[in-house]
Specification:
By secondary structure, the chain is of the alpha+beta class. The chain contains eleven helices and 23 strands. The strands form six sheets. Strands 1, 2, 3, 6, 20, 21, 22 and 23 form an eight-stranded antiparallel beta sheet that branches. Strands 9-8-7-14 form a four-stranded antiparallel beta sheet, with no helix packed on it. Helix 2 packs antiparallel against helix 3. The chain starts with a helix and ends with a strand.
Length: 447
């Protein structure tokens, strides 16, 4: 058996078989030429492919430095391969998914769930998203080479209520000094394009990022292509039916007491983070689940617990599609809105153009203009449009503290990274080590 395993023809056959299956999965058949390299590595050995190693070292052993270099190169290639095609580590940075996902949760994202997306920007520094380590503005990639979007076959498709990691749709353009606080488009709506571009001191340089180098977000998919969505007093309805119950779903509530303070230890037991505790005299404001509300109502010093709600008709100019005259929507009362589906055709008018403008112009790269009340797509008059991609509607489970599709619209299919799989580590930022380790969340499946 040992002789078989060490035989060069056995090694070549095994590696070549794996490589052939991988190329078939990729669907890029000219990569079969790589079999020539594999044949030379294991059989003919004419080319010294591992150029960093001595070909015939004295005594048959490499130096310690070369061994370390060899190990690092292998580790980087193996980890990059796994990260690209199978799983990727992700950290929950904000409270938008609490209580389903907590700040400080470290989880694995399955690329196989929906099929891994082939790299669009292949030349980049490994293991970072868009900025070089120890820097704030130096980009970690080169966009000299850009590939078209292509997704390999996976185990399934995005379903309603999946927890999905995706690239931030409004992250194509970034004001470098404000990239972590506010999207470029929100800055333009608030301050005007001229100031955002000219005030380098406040906003920094304005840069473009390819799809796969935009910030990673995590939200719950509440509606899939072809669905119709509406939000009434905070309740999501999809195709006329209320959204499936989610145990971690929470809203902001005003809690009124008899004037005495609520014990902080009691709030700790409710897992309300210190950053979410707001007090004004006898009133508190907390994000709470239904279970938390029931528990708080039993406190002897609590008089009332009322959910905050923005009434219908109170339009918010920061809410998609940013046309409050025709769409007087807000976070609690929104829609109805139809989620675009690949191959479907929609009638276009000046009224509904704000809903589809970004899809047509940015995501699907058409030239769009309006002249004399007529819509032109690629310089041709158009009263309809057929979608080239599927789109999704993503929302955070922490409904009143989540920057989600209500603020920036649809998520294109080419922005999907993968499905959140399970938590492998969880650390509470409000507690010191080792009390900050949430042992009960280890290897917890994301639901």
């Amino acid at each position: 058996m040992r002789n078989i395993l060490t035989n060069k023809w056995f090694k070549f056959s095994f590696v070549a078989t794996l490589y052939i299956l991988w190329v078939i999965w990729l669907g890029i058949y000219w990569w079969f030429l790589g079999l020539i390299v594999i044949f030379d590595i294991y059989i003919t050995q004419k080319v010294h492919w591992a150029f960093w190693k001595k070909k015939n070292p004295p005594g048959g052993k490499q130096t310690k430095v070369i061994e370390w270099v060899d190990a690092i190169i292998f580790a980087v290639i193996a980890a990059t391969f796994i990260r690209t095609f199978f799983i990727q580590a992700y950290t929950i940075p904000s409270s938008s998914m609490e209580k389903s996902m907590l700040v400080g949760d470290y989880l694995f994202v399955s690329k196989m769930a929906y099929g891994p997306r082939m790299p669009i920007t292949p030349i980049s520094f490994p293991f970072v998203q868009h900025t070089l380590p120890l820097t704030k503005t130096v980009k970690s990639y080169s966009d000299a080479i850009q590939f078209k979007y292509h997704r390999l076959k996976g185990f399934g498709h995005v379903k309603r209520n999946d927890v999905v990691v995706f690239n931030f749709p409004e992250g194509d353009t970034v004001a470098v000094k404000m990239q972590l606080e506010t999207s470029y488009y929100q800055l333009v709506r608030s301050y005007g394009r001229e100031r955002v571009w000219n005030d380098k001191r406040a906003f920094g340089d304005i840069i473009y990022r390819p799809v796969d180098k935009r910030e990673n977000y995590i939200k719950r998919c509440v509606a899939i292509p072809g669905d119709s969505l509406k939000i009434v007093n905070g309740q999501v309805f999809v195709n006329g039916q209320p959204q499936k119950s989610i145990s971690g779903l929470q809203y902001n509530y005003v809690v009124t007491t008899n004037g005495t303070a609520i014990n902080p230890e009691a709030l700790d037991r409710l897992h309300i983070s210190k950053a979410d505790r707001h007090r004004n005299g006898a009133q508190y404001m907390f994000p709470l689940t239904c279970e938390d509300v029931k528990k708080l109502k039993k406190f002897t010093n609590v008089i009332s617990v009322k959910r905050m709600n923005t009434p219908a008709g109170n339009s918010d100019p920061n809410i998609f599609p940013f046309a409050p005259k025709d769409y007087p929507w807000n976070v609690d009362n929104f829609g109805p809105i139809w989620i675009p589906q690949k191959g479907a055709t929609v009638h276009l008018s000046l009224k509904n153009l704000p809903i589809y403008r970004r899809i047509i112009r940015v995501y699907e790269k058409n030239k769009l203009a309006v002249k004399d009340s007529t819509i032109y797509i690629n310089e041709q008059p158009a009263d309809s449009y057929t979608f080239k991609m599927n789109y999704y509607w993503m929302m955070g489970d922490n409904r009143d503290d989540s920057a989600d599709s209500r603020y920036w619209g649809f998520v294109p299919e080419n922005h999907i990274v993968g499905e959140a799989s399970f938590v492998w580590l969880s650390l509470d930022k409000d507690k010191p080590f080792p009390a900050n380790i949430r042992w009960n969340r280890f290897f917890k499946k994301v639901r």
